[in-house]
C-alpha cells in the first residue's frame, strides 16, 4: 500500500512506512504478506458455503472473517483510497454502490 495522500494522512499505514497497520505489529511487507497468507488460509477454511448471498453486508462479513486476526478494521468500509504498488483498489466513495451491485 502506498501513502498517496502525504505523510501520515493514510490511517491504514504506519507513519513513514508503506506497511499497513496490523495486530501483529509487523513492519516488513514480505513478513506481513506471509502472515496474512497463512492466517487467511486458515480462516477461509471456516467459511460456510451455501447459497450465494449478494450485497455489501455479506462481503464485509467475509472480509471480517478472513482478516480479523490481522487488521483491527477488518470488515469495515475504508475512508481513504488504498493502493497495492501502483494498482488502486476501488475508490472508497464507491464501495457501498459497487458492493451492493447485482
Automatic annotation (TrEMBL):
Enzyme class per UniProt: transferase
Entry keyword rRNA-binding: no
Annotated InterPro entries: Fido-like_dom_sf (IPR036597)
Name the record gives this protein: protein adenylyltransferase
Molecular function GO terms recorded: AMPylase activity; ATP binding
SUPFAM superfamilies: Fic-like
Gene Ontology biological-process annotations: regulation of cell division
Annotated keywords: ATP-binding, Nucleotide-binding, Nucleotidyltransferase, Transferase
Xref: Gene3D superfamilies: Fido-like domain
UniProt xrefs under NCBIfam families: PRK10347.1
Highest taxon of source: Bacteria
Amino acid at each position: 500500500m502506498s501513502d498517496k495522500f502525504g505523510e501520515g494522512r493514510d490511517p491504514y499505514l504506519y507513519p513513514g512506512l508503506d506497511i499497513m497497520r496490523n495486530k501483529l505489529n509487523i513492519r516488513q511487507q514480505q513478513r506481513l504478506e506471509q502472515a496474512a497468507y497463512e492466517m487467511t488460509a486458515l480462516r477461509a477454511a471456516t467459511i460456510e458455503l451455501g447459497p450465494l448471498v449478494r450485497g455489501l453486508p455479506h462481503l464485509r462479513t467475509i472480509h471480517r472473517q478472513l482478516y480479523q486476526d490481522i487488521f483491527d478494521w477488518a470488515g469495515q468500509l475504508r475512508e481513504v483510497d488504498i493502493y497495492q504498488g501502483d494498482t488502486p483498489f476501488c475508490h472508497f466513495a464507491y464501495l457501498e454502490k459497487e458492493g451492493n451491485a447485482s
